[in-house]
Amino acid sequence: MVGPEIERLIQLLSRLPGLGPRSARRAALRLVEKREALLIPLGQAMAEAAAKVRTCSTCGNFDTIDPCAVCADPRRDPALLCVVEDVAGLWAMERTGSFRGRYAVLGGLLSALDGIGPEDLGIESLVARAHAPAITEVILATPATVEGQTTAHYVAERLAGCGVTVSGLAHGVPVGGELDHLDDGTITAALRARRVF
Amino acid sequence: MEWDDDAIVLAVRRHGETGAVASLLTRSHGRHAGLVHGGQAKANRAVLQPGNAVRAKWTARLPEQLGNYRLEMLQAHGAAFLDDPARLAALGSACALAEAALPERQPHPVCHAALAALLYALEAESWPSVYVHFELALLRDLGFGLDLTACAATGRTDDLAWVSPKTGRAVSREAGEPYRDRLFRLPAFLVEGGEGTGADIRAGLELSGFFLQRHVLDPRHTVLPAARGRLVGRLG
């Protein structure tokens, strides 16, 4: 029905998150229809990104410069270091605009099932960074899951001799959350982490 | 094909963009995997945490198929210990060990009961002793139980202090003394009950770890899970 070029475009698009074969076909059709306005600029943007984007050698973020814009920003608080599982976590923290420190991306979590051990994560470079005198606090922002918190405890243990305060994100009731709609685990965690009002 | 059963979440793998394959230790159907549609959705992620007790409904057209799970949370054990590194390590180790050691789709109600008991016992101070008992129960239910009732050499039932690495049987203090460097120490709490000291727990873990590796994991060409190593490191 379509030529191999378009078929290949559909195949590649269908590998993106959120797109199945049908939605990839629709996206491909729209790109082909809007060749000048969409397809060519998108192709150029992707080629440019492929050529220029690299992994920040300091924190593990993706950017076109190394160190990345976050690490290179002099207005950032050099005393705070936030540890996240992956770049998606870093971007989520940045989206809030409430954290003005710097980051360390682990690149995964300790997982017995997937055979991911401490040596597979960026823990050594994190510990080396935490030894810098400028850093006073490391915030562990790993997911509130068994694997996420197992990783956080391991990292906290490794940071014990670095002379930094190690803190973690609070677990509990989300903004807008009503108790009868929350799962038991979240309520349990919130109850354990209750604070004096 | 359809059944309902009480289960404990052992491990979860992502499947596609939204689904997950959950491996559960069920009461009557053993370690059993199944697909959870929407397993990566916000509402399901809290349920699919290792250690959580769930009510599982499994459906499939044929018994040999992977099948689909519908899960309902019964007890969120995972969330209860997120802030406690040692207990969280024990929970992770127990689930990883059950996942590695138990064959799929073979009923092991004793292992289910032992894991459920451990998860409840994690609230108590004596949880390290219960953890060692859990590993020994796992060994026993898989057919490699240790005989700690009488001395393999003399038949004595008192003053048992060692375990032979060859036979997995207890040896009395007197009979084992000349061979003590080749025997495992038998912690008293494994014979007399009660709670073990830190040294007893380490001895118990060394004992159960050796026999789990030799009888259960070596034949599968695998090793004790890293999560167990981290637990041993934390208790050591």
What can you see in these coordinates?
By secondary structure, chain A is α/β, with parallel strands linked by helices. Chain A has two domains: 49 residues, RecR Domain 1 (Helicase, Ruva Protein, domain 3); 93 residues, 3-Layer(aba) Sandwich (Dna Topoisomerase Vi A Subunit, Chain: A, domain 2), CATH 3.40.1360.10. In chain A, 43% of the residues lie in helices and 11% in strands. Chain A is built from eight helices and six strands; from the N terminus they run αααββαβαβαβαβα. In chain A, strands 4-3-5-6 form a four-stranded parallel beta sheet. In chain A, α1 packs across α2 and α2 packs across α3. The longest helix of chain A has 18 residues. Chain A is globular and about 65 Å long. The mean pLDDT of chain A is 92. Chain B has 236 residues and is α+β, with helices and mostly antiparallel strands. Chain B folds into two domains: 76 residues, OB fold (Dihydrolipoamide Acetyltransferase, E2P), CATH 2.40.50.140; 121 residues, no CATH class. Chain B is 39% helix and 22% strand. Chain B contains nine helices and eight strands. In chain B, the strands form two sheets. A five-stranded antiparallel beta sheet of chain B has the order 3-2-1-4-5. Chain B has a three-stranded antiparallel beta sheet with strand order 7-6-8. In chain B, a hairpin with a 3-residue loop joins β1 and β2. In chain B, α3 packs antiparallel against α4, α3 runs parallel beside α5 and α4 runs antiparallel to α5. Chain A: May play a role in DNA repair. It seems to be involved in an RecBC-independent recombinational process of DNA repair. It may act with RecF and RecO. Chain A: InterPro entries: DNA_Rcmb_RecR, Rcmb_RecR, Rcmb_RecR_Znf, TOPRIM_dom, TOPRIM_RecR. Chain A: It comes from Paramagnetospirillum caucaseum.
Helices and strands, with pairings:
The complex is a heterodimer of chains A (197) and B (236).
Chain A: H1 4-13, H2 21-33, H3 35-52, E1 54-55, E2 62-63, H4 69-72, E3 80-84, H5 87-96, E4 102-105, H6 123-130, E5 137-140, H7 146-158, E6 165-168, H8 184-192
Parallel strand pairs in A: 3-4, 3-5, 5-6
Antiparallel strand pairs in A: 1-2
Helix pairs in contact in A: 1-2, 2-3
Chain B: E1 2-15, E2 19-26, E3 30-36, H1 42-45, E4 53-59, E5 68-75, H2 77-80, H3 85-101, H4 109-121, H5 127-141, E6 160-163, E7 170-172, H6 173-176, E8 184-185, H7 189-192, H8 198-217, H9 226-235
Antiparallel strand pairs in B: 1-2, 1-4, 2-3, 4-5, 6-7, 6-8
Helix pairs in contact in B: 3-4, 3-5, 3-9, 4-5, 5-8
